[in-house]
Amino acid sequence: MICLRKHILKSKAYYLEVHDDQMILSEHKNMSNAKYVIKYTWETRIMWKASDSQELCSFGIYYNNRIKWFDSDHNSLNLLKIHLSGKVFFGNISIFYDSNQLLGQGASSKVCLVKCKKSISQYAAKCISKKYLLQKKSNDRINRLQQEIQILQKIDHSNFVKLHEIYQGENSYYIVTDYLEGNTLYNYIKTYPDDQLSSYQVREAIKIILTALNYLASMNIIHRDIKLENILLQKQNDITSLKVIDFGLALYKYPPQKLSVCGTPGYIAPEILKPTDKEEYFTEKCDIFSAGVIFFKLLTKKTLFRAENTLEIMEKNKLCQINFQEFEFKLQKEALNLLKGMLDPNPNTRYSAQQCLDHPYFSCKLENISILQEILDKATGFSGITQIIDYKNTNSIGQECQAAQVKKCNPTSYRIRMELRKRTKSPRKYADFQFYYPSFCQMNSCESLSSKGSSHNVSQFENFINDKLDSVIEEDEKQQIHKQ
Questions:
Q1: N or C: at which end does the chain have fewer Cβ atoms within 10 angstroms?
Q2: pLDDT attached to residue 386
Q3: Ordered alpha helix ranges (H), 384-438
Q4: 169 and 127 fall within a common domain
Q5: What's the DSSP call for residue 85?
Q6: CA–CA separation, 302 vs 357, rounded Å?
Q7: Is the pTM of this model over 0.85?
Q8: Which of 39-53, 102-116, 347-361 has the least mean pLDDT?
Q9: In 3-state terms, what secondary structure has residue 251?
């Protein structure tokens, strides 16, 4: 594009080229002897000016500690902005967006709903206070924000929130991403009718999460904070539209980083919490364990590590003593086997994301255990499978498992059949009746259904953000455990 640099005596025309790693301005059309070469770095900042009609009229670059302004037409400037989006920090966010709604907050940031002034498009803006980032003498927090942005720039996958633009104001950084209309997965399952998801919904949800983690593994990225609150629905009540968000704790696998306490209590892989003499490093397996905690919640409707306070949760999380026998007759065997592989305390034998996706659970026919229990209740007048479990001892449970294998059915199905035979006057009447795997209790394997303003004025937008951010700076370490 061609732009104009205004001077008191004579204005100069410049030719501008945008490249993958830099922007060049030269007085010559062949781009020789470029006067300005702007590399895309953490310090790079592009400023904007708009006319009274809200049309872009100028862009500015920082050069020798001054802003140098270049004029051009709105269409060319808008195209320039599109090409630079997500690569460098923009200034003057209030030229482009309005905001008056808070979506959520964390220990170090707020997330606000922002509306584009030139369209009806809405986005989510994560607003990080500079005051928070500079509280520590070290550069840890700045480095984490820098890495979060770099990772978001690198990710291009349908199961992740997409980065659109990054802004830097006087008091805050802003990361503008997709706005997801749906709720968090945590709130979705909490408000779901009867607090119960179908087997199909559970499988679709965990498949999407594992597919996302498999993509991260291929990019050598570790999320480190996979949890129900960081999985959002793009569309209301559509579990097939799940997306992973919040890369505030994410890092690259290489170079390896030593294990340190990081994540959310109850979701942290046990190797991170257990001190060891050996030097151990973060791997993508810690995300698999966190996904296993989510899978446990989806399958059982229970929290894996339940306790009165955070310290007790952390202790149970570290010990990782899980009684799978409690769920042996309540869960389908393929689901239980996959759950065990994901929650393996040993990261060396814990399943990888690809191993999880290759598991028979994602290709087998699904059983609805609640329907099987309802059939039993109606057919026999009995009070359900849970009473059978209470009645049986450990030895008889083991015997039933063996017998079920001989009959080529799961233990739950075998018990239903045996209960019917026991409660009829003619025991042989049901001998050949295939009561397990009834057609109306099956669901076939399915694929996912989706796969203007001058710089010295403080805008109403930034006032809103800064007021909201100041209210939680002091709560830094109370909400979540971060890397020390």
A1: C
A2: 45
A3: 385-391, 394-406, 411-422
A4: yes
A5: T
A6: 23
A7: no
A8: 102-116
A9: strand
